[in-house]
Amino acid sequence: MKDARLRFLSVVALSIASFMSVVAAMLTVGWWFIHEKQKRVIFRSIPFWIYLGIIGFFGLVIQVESGGGLSYILRLGAIALLAAWTYREFRSGEFLEVAVWIFGKKVGFELGLVAEMSIQGLRVLEEDIERIRMALILKGRRGWVRTLPTTLSLLLMVTLRRADAQASLLALRGYQKGGELCPEFSRQSRELLSGSAALAIFFLALFLTLLV
Fold it and tell me: Degrees (nearest 5) of the Cα angle 85, 19, 12?
């Protein structure tokens, strides 16, 4: 989706729908399957499988203790797929534009700036992890389990230094509150159909929840 507003609306609607209804979660997976063009990239992502593994572990615990664990796995699994799709579809500046469009130039700019810095931080963190991994391999230290403590400590130090540098930069530039921004959006005709489908799944989940 080129229109960040429709993408944001679709993800929010489908996430809520998946949490409310198993049927909606299954429809959400179908919606994701149609829109995700880089499925192989996501399925090859180690963090994605680690996250699914955590969901599966707690789902099994819930299933053994009280039942409903499979429903938990399906719902959060659908939300995880949406999160991965949103992260891959993100383009620099989109969260800021959407936040300003929804909440205005003061509150919206603040929220958008925080979101932009967080997403950019994740992107840089991925690059840091890859550089650290390559450095450890060159030193002859293989296996991500054995190198995990070293990697985490390095990432922590680098992240804290980068956050301090960003805060200092904003202070030096005199940033206080809000900012001027004129959001511009473009979309394709089929994106309206995709957004309508996401809203339809949301209202179906709402209907099923009220029916029960």
Answer: 45
Q: Which amino acid is at 119?
A: I
Can you give the pLDDT at residue 1?
74
Q: How far apart (Å, rounded) are the C-alpha atoms in residues 200 and 92? A: 29
Please answer whether residues 95 and 112 qualify as being in contact, where contact means their C-beta atoms are separated by less than 8 angstroms.
Answer: yes
* pLDDT at position 83: 85
Three-state DSSP at 94 gives helix
Q: How far is CA 124 from CA 131, 153, 162, 191, in A?
A: 11, 16, 10, 30
User: What tokens appear for 151 in the block?
Assistant: 């990697």
Query: Rounded to whole angstroms, how far apart are CA atoms 194 and 197?
Result: 5
Amino acid at 185: F
Q: Enumerate the domain spans of the chain.
A: 1-104+186-212, 106-179
State the burial class of residue 184 (Cβ atoms within 10 Å of its Cβ: 0-12, 13-18, 19+): exposed
Half-sphere exposure of 65 (CA within 13 A, CB side): 8
Continuous segment of H or E residues that includes residue 45: none
pTM of the model: 0.71
Task: Give the span between the Cα atoms of 179 and 176, in whole angstroms.
Answer: 9
User: Average pLDDT of each block of 10 consecutive residues along the chain (212 residues)?
Assistant: 84 92 92 81 75 87 85 89 82 80 79 78 75 74 64 75 75 66 73 89 91 75
